[in-house]
Amino acid sequence: MVDKKKSKKTKIGVVVSNNMDKSIVVLTERTLRHKLYGKYIRRHVKYMADDPVNSCNIGDRVMIEECRPLSKRKRWRVREIIEKAV
Predict the structure, then answer these.
(1) pTM score, two decimals?
(2) By CB count within 10 A, which of 29, 51, 67, 80 is most buried?
(3) Which residues share a beta bridge with 48?
């Protein structure tokens, strides 16, 4: 039997909150085109992510990846910090 390992989903966003211990809130944005008018619209979603070493600060640009459920709202884990906030 062939083992087909699914790749985990990743998203890039900005840290908007790090008040919790070992958890952060990441805001991701995407643009989509309106069906009728063709105007580009920005949509955003907040994800709660696991940060086991508390290395992220507000304003950091991070990549998060999907993981098993860690708590009621946490289903993402920090994969890497792309850019530190100034």
Answers:
(1) 0.86
(2) 51
(3) 25, 74
